[in-house]
Amino acid sequence: MQIIITGGAGFLGQRLAKALLKSSLAFDELVLVDIVLPDNPGNDNRISCLQADLSKEGAAQKLIQPETGFVFHLAAVVSSQAEKEFDLGWKVNLDTTRNLLEACRHQHPGIRFVFASGMAVYGGQLPPVINEATVVTPQSSYGTQKAIAELLINDYSRKNFVDGRVLRLPTICVRPGRPNLAASSFLSSIIREPINGEKAVCPVSPDLPVLLASPDTIIENILKGATLAGADFGGWRTVNMPAVGVTVQEMLDSLERIAGKETRARVEFRPDPAINAIVSSWPGAIDNSRALGLGFNVDGPFDGFITQFIAQNEAKPD
Amino acid sequence: MQIIITGGAGFLGQRLAKALLKSSLAFDELVLVDIVLPDNPGNDNRISCLQADLSKEGAAQKLIQPETGFVFHLAAVVSSQAEKEFDLGWKVNLDTTRNLLEACRHQHPGIRFVFASGMAVYGGQLPPVINEATVVTPQSSYGTQKAIAELLINDYSRKNFVDGRVLRLPTICVRPGRPNLAASSFLSSIIREPINGEKAVCPVSPDLPVLLASPDTIIENILKGATLAGADFGGWRTVNMPAVGVTVQEMLDSLERIAGKETRARVEFRPDPAINAIVSSWPGAIDNSRALGLGFNVDGPFDGFITQFIAQNEAKPD
To answer: Which of B29, B182, B183, B288 is deepest in the core (most CB within 10 A)?
Structure first.
């Protein structure tokens, strides 16, 4: 059995690959594919790393094999980039997803298609607390593309062309490494950079509420989403991944508690209307009950997000 | 100024063209386009009829002109057909819509893009009464394709690439002519055929609730949707068109009241699981308040649907 991870060069792809190598899931091959050649995530002869543009005609068909059992589709153009590069966003976030679904459908039925969607599908006039019954009215092209991919995967699952699982991820915090082009990137920067002795800019108001999950929890939940029985999802394959709601102020209070006043002082507020427009359209409070009922995990208080980052940052396991 | 109607050969396209010719909207050209050459809906030198497959590369670009002011995008593969012919459904209901939006975007901003969506976007576990805050979980490929088109048009409108208006039409009753491949086609057949002295088959249970609007109301509301200011829609361009909720039994009671026992007796119940699966997933009760607040119209009791049909059937205006 073969497992494919798209976006295999990214932080989540690399972390997921390592988790799969350690998991009880039996497989013969683990393929990491990305627009740039992914790093090899471990010393294991089941791994292969591949550079490919899956939005190109025929590329997805070439990738999906008779042995393919799981596709973890993580590849995406992130939110701020999809807003600036409209055509690229549709090409990668819609066309690639559709190409992969078509390739699975025409290969063999029952491939587990695990899709990383996001809370960015929500936007506009939201109720105080969102859940899976909340209407999807995205206020960004990225959110629109994710919402469309969700609908596609549900229809392909209903037709038994794939065995889809749509996991709406909250913002991941703390991401290691450098800032990326996601509008939410600052939510890791304002913790990571100060801890690493660098300055960070916060482009939104301190009272903005955000929904977060830690990398460990996200990876556990992606594996959970892949290994649940299809029937567990009932008639709709989309689940909001459990998140913790905090304000930016609470994140910085936590930073000061754990890393000290001096570290906290490295964060400067400088409003950015473009980022604010996207991030403030996302929900700030969530009812996690569908996901918890399915056995997904949720993080504890925000202090734990920071201690998880510090421990992994010092160990440099990734 | 030029107006384009896709699906111009269809019942709605022809009716809309006639209504536009009589309306106060000033224009220089009215183009009816369809996969088959549309009939000329009137003796007016502003009309042109065109055969084209708009899912083909470049066809939409050729259609949309510097003079284009309105696009009424009515063309679609209907529900039962999209369920049976999966690839054709996506090609027409998704690719054509996307091609038209791209052509408008690259022609000039502000083209009013009026889209005929449908209540088929709803499905699955619905609340007793639906409104625009009801989550969209379609149970057919047709409904999925309409939901995706809605998201596309909202995003293109948010970016000011088009001035979109998404009108979710209820089932139209009574359609003149012959049955089509829509799963809802029987809802006209069970009235139209008996009145015309023919037998009709009802494939669902008499207690199934359905949402209906008459042809006159639908056409008035499409014109209304086209002429409202974009700002009237607020942050989201999708509106449920007002509908009347009735059961199939109530429709037949009405038929008996207006056309007699003998006419009513021409309807035979013969369950069809495939049609039932699609139609029973659609909502049966609606809160019309958003649309009524915007000035859209709603029909009266179901008797009026039948008298409208009889009057127009005898006059044969179409």
So the answer is: B183
Q: How far is CA A228 from the centre of its chain?
A: 18
B280 touches chain A (CB under 8 A): no
Q: How far is CA A8 from CA A12, A47, A75, A171, A195, in A?
A: 8, 11, 8, 19, 27
Residue B280 burial by Cβ neighbours in a 10 Å radius (0-12, 13-18, 19+): middle
Residue B51 identity: Q
> What separation in angstroms does the CA of A149 have from each of A162, A188, B306?
13, 26, 41
Q: How many CB atoms lie within 10 A of CB A237?
A: 24
Q: Give the residue from chain A lying closest to B153, CA to CA.
A: A144
Residue A146 corresponds to which amino acid? K
pLDDT the model gives residue B318:
44
Q: Is A98 exposed, middle or buried (0-12, 13-18, 19+ CB in 10 A)?
A: middle
Mean pLDDT, each 10-residue run in order, chain B (318 residues): 98 97 97 98 97 96 98 94 96 98 97 97 93 96 98 98 98 92 92 97 94 98 97 96 97 98 97 89 93 98 97 72
What's the N-to-C CA distance of chain A in angstroms?
26
No. of helices (H) and no. of strands (E), chain B: 13, 12
Q: Which residue spans of chain A are classified as CATH 3.90.25.10?
A: 183-211+244-284+299-315
Paired with A31 in beta bridges are: A4, A48
* Averaged pLDDT for residues A19-43: 97
CB B187 within 8 A of CB B80: no
- Are the CB atoms for A183 and A118 separated by under 8 Å? no
The fold of B186-211+244-315 is UDP-galactose 4-epimerase; domain 1 (3.90.25)
Interface check for A280 against chain B (CB to CB < 8 A): the answer is: no
CATH class as words, domain A183-211+244-284+299-315? alpha beta
- Does residue A141 belong to the interface with chain B, where contact is any CB pair within 8 Å? yes
Q: Is A225 exposed, middle or buried (0-12, 13-18, 19+ CB in 10 A)?
A: buried
SS3 A105: helix
A156 is catalytic: no
Which residue among B125, B158, B235 places its CB closest to the CB of A125? Answer: B235
For residue A262, the 8-state DSSP code is H
HSE-CB for B168 with a 13 A CA cutoff: 32
Closest chain B residue to A84, measured at CA: B159
Among residues A180, A202, A196, A313, which one has the least CA distance to residue A252? Answer: A202
The CATH number fitting domain A2-170+214-240, selected from 3.40.50.1240, 3.40.50.720, 3.40.250.10, 3.40.630.30: 3.40.50.720
ipTM of the modeled complex: 0.95
- Rounded to 5°, angle at Cα B259 from B258 and B261: 110
Alpha helices by DSSP H, A228-267? 248-259, 261-264
Residues 6+ apart with CB under 8 A from B286: B119, B129, B130, B131, B170, B211, B240, B242, B243, B245
Which residues face B51 on adjacent strands?
A: B34
Residue A190, classed as helix, strand or coil, is: helix
